[in-house]
Amino acid sequence: MSENIIYCYSGSGHCLAMAKDIAARLGDTDIVLMRAYPEKTDATEASRVGFIFPCYGGGLPGHVEEYIKAIKIAPGAYKFAVEQFAGYMGCGLHKIDEIVGLDYWNYISNHSTCIWLMPHGLCFPPTSKEQAQQRVDRKAMEVASAVKAGIRSEKKPPKMAFFALESNAFSKLHPKRAGKFWANDSCIGCGTCARICPRGNITLKDGKPGFGKDCIGCLSCVQYCPKEAINVGKITEKRERFPNPAVKAADLTKKIIHID
Ligand SMILES: Cc1cc2nc3c(=O)[nH]c(=O)nc-3n(C[C@H](O)[C@H](O)[C@H](O)COP(=O)(O)O)c2cc1C
Question: What is the overall mean pLDDT for the chain?
Answer without folding.
Answer: 95
